[in-house]
Amino acid sequence: MNGTVVITGAVSGIGLSTSKLFLAKGWNVMMADFNEDLGKKVLEELLAEYSPERLAFQQCDVSSARSVDAMAQATHDSFGHVDSVINNAGIFAKGAVHEIDEDVWDRVMATDVKSIYLTTKAFVPEMIERKSGTIVNTASISGLQGDYNMAVYNAAKGAVVNLVRAMALDYGKYGIRVNNVNPGPTMTPMFRSNPQSVIDEFAQASPLGRLVQPEDIARTMYFLASDESDPITGQNIPVSAGFEIYSGQPV
Ligand code: NAD
């Protein structure tokens, strides 16, 4: 199968690698992202390689219903129906619960969790009608376990870890599959900005002794979005170099 995919958070890090892989595999790609300047730059670069019939960028705030609905309309105008939605946009904030400002709490929950509700409302009715489609969410290993000083991110990604099960149950009868990719620490621009000593420490903490690259996540996104992963649904798939499997017991 190849068709049309909507990717949120598409112009940086994991979303950009995922967009490039779907394009290389022959899919039409709607790249949706909040960052308009970077979006225009990335679009221009990709249009040197791919035709405008197969690729579009739409400025979109995934935490706003109005913005997501406008993006859905632009997607239908450009490509007709949608076969797959990759809910990848996400943000992170530090702090224990009592240290987090209310607006930061709300913004992380809206960007990382409510966004999935909004894109699902926008795109699932047409999938139900056609009785096919796939949805892939970027969760995190931080939704599968706890971290120090990352309370709202743990809460948000933990919600995504269980939301995928509810969506897979509710939409399975329509032939729609819903899965999560749960990245470990991944070498995106944000993570690269850490001091080298911190990056090395993270790498050494995984059994494979390395960090994950955005391309590693993209391959799993593609697998879960395409027919290659049929009949997998409702699953959380860590792509982490094994980072999260250690119990933490002293050696
Ligand atoms: P990134 O910052 O490189 O990319 C995130 C993209 O999302 C950016 O282009 C940003 O503009 C966009 N975005 C942010 N808020 C938005 C909004 N409201 N509406 C639309 N777009 C918005 O980060 P990344 O590391 O590629 O992260 C992608 C996903 O992977 C996130 O959900 C993140 O939580 C998750 N993740 C990342 C790591 C990691 O180590 N990098 C680990 C686990 C999970």
Automatic annotation (TrEMBL):
Enzyme class: oxidoreductase
Domain of life of the organism encoding this protein: Bacteria
Record keyword Transmembrane helix present: no
PROSITE patterns recorded: ADH_SHORT
Pfam (any one): adh_short_C2
Segments crossing the lipid bilayer: none
Protein keywords: Oxidoreductase
Record GO biological process: fatty acid biosynthetic process
InterPro entries: NAD(P)-bd_dom_sf (IPR036291), Sc_DH/Rdtase_CS (IPR020904), SDR_fam (IPR002347)
Enzyme Commission no: 1.-.-.-
GO terms assigned for molecular function: oxidoreductase activity, acting on the CH-OH group of donors, NAD or NADP as acceptor; quinone binding
This protein's record includes keyword Plastid: no
Similarity annotation: Belongs to the short-chain dehydrogenases/reductases (SDR) family.
Name of the molecule in the record: SDR family oxidoreductase
Organism ancestry: Bacteria, Bacillati, Actinomycetota, Actinomycetes, Bifidobacteriales
